[in-house]
Amino acid sequence: MALTAVVRIPTRALLRPWARLRDSALGWMEPVGGVEVSTQRFGSQRVLVEPASAAGVAVMTFKNPPVNSLSLELLTELVINLEKLENDKTFRGVVLTSDCPGIFSAGLDLTEICGRNPAHYAEYWKAVQEMWLRLYLSNLMLVAAINGACPAGGCLMSLTCDYRVMADNPKYAIGLNETLLGIVAPFWFKDTLVNTIGHRASERALQLGLLFPPTEALQVGMVDRLVPEDQVQSTALSVLAQWMAIPDHARQLTKNMMRKPTADGLLKKRDEDIQNFVSFISRDSIQKSLQMYLAKLRQKKG
Ligand SMILES: CCCC/C=C\CC(=O)SCCNC(=O)CCNC(=O)[C@H](O)C(C)(C)COP(=O)(O)OP(=O)(O)OC[C@H]1O[C@@H](n2cnc3c(N)ncnc32)[C@H](O)[C@@H]1OP(=O)(O)O
C-alpha cells in the first residue's frame, strides 16, 4: 500500500454509485476531476480505513456527520472499501466503528426515503440491499465497535458483524425501531435479528420497535460484550485477535453455511423487494409519518 499517493475517484461515479462500483471492481481510475482519496488510509471521504497495529486487521470508521446516517454516498463508499479489503488478501479482520461522538449510526438516511421520486427510492434501496449482502456474506471477520446510539439501519449494519462490542453507557440504545416511525422492517432485517436473538425476542422487539439500552441489549443477545466507552475499539481489536487464531478456510465455510440460506432469501427476490419498498415508501400515509418523524427530530433543538 503506498503511503502518500493520492488517487482520484471520478465525479461521475459518485453521482452514479453503481457505475462507480463497477469501475472500482475493474480498477478503473480517472486522472482528473473528482474527489481526492489518500491511499495512505485506503479509505474515502466518509469511510476511513486504517490498518491496525495487529497484522491482518483494519479499522473502518464511518465519518458522515452529524449522525452517520446511511446516505447513498456512505453506503456506496462502505461497499467499495469493503471490497478493497476483501481483495487485499493481507486483511482478515475488520473493526467497524464511528467517528461521530455518541452515535454509531442513526440508520437509513431519512432524507433519502422522504420526499424523493420512485427512481431514487429504487436506487437507494438497492444500495441498502448491497450493503447488507456484502457485509452479511463477507469472508472477513467483522467486529462492530458500537460507540454510540445504534437505531434501525445502524443496528442492522452491526447485526451483520460476527461480534458486537458496545459502550456501556445508558444514554445509548440499539434496536430495530422501524414501527415507531410507522414503517415496517423488511423480511431480511427481521431474519437478521431472528438469527441473532431468536424468534420470540425478535417478535416482541420488532412489534414494539424496542431500542435496548446496553445492559438489556446484552441480556437479549443483541450485543456480545459491554465495556467502558474508551475501551470499545481496543476490546473489538482483542476479540478479533482471538478469532484470528481460527484457520480462515474452516471459519469462512462455517460462516457461509450459517448465513447463506438467509442471504439467499433476499438474493432470490431482490427486484421484488425493491418494488415492494418503492410502493410502500411512496404511499402518502407513509410519507406523512416519515415527515412528522423528521420534523420531530429537527424540532428537538428548537
Ligand atoms: C420499508 C422501510 C424500511 C426502512 C428500514 C429502515 C429504517 C431506518 O433505518 S429509518 C431511520 C431510523 N433512525 C432513527 O429512528 C434514528 C433517528 N435519530 C435519532 O434518534 C437521533 O438523531 C440520534 C439518537 C441518532 C442522535 O441524537 P442527537 O445527537 O440528539 O442528534 P439529533 O437528533 O439532534 O440529530 C442531528 C441531526 O441529524 C438529523 N438526523 C438524525 N437522524 C437522522 C436520520 N436517520 N436520517 C437523516 N437525518 C437524521 C436530525 O434531524 C438533525 O438534523 P438537523 O436538525 O437538521 O441538524
TrEMBL record:
The keyword Chaperone does not apply. Its EC number is 5.3.3.8. Transmembrane segments: none annotated. Keywords: Acetylation, Fatty acid metabolism, Isomerase, Lipid metabolism, Mitochondrion, Transit peptide. It is an enzyme of class 5 (isomerase). GO terms for molecular function: delta(3)-delta(2)-enoyl-CoA isomerase activity. GO terms for biological process: fatty acid beta-oxidation. Homotrimer. Key enzyme of fatty acid beta-oxidation. Able to isomerize both 3-cis (3Z) and 3-trans (3E) double bonds into the 2-trans (2E) form in a range of enoyl-CoA species, with a preference for (3Z)-enoyl-CoAs over (3E)-enoyl-CoAs. The catalytic efficiency of this enzyme is not affected by the fatty acyl chain length. This is Enoyl-CoA delta isomerase 1, mitochondrial. It comes from Hipposideros armiger. The lineage of its organism: Eukaryota, Metazoa, Chordata, Craniata, Vertebrata.
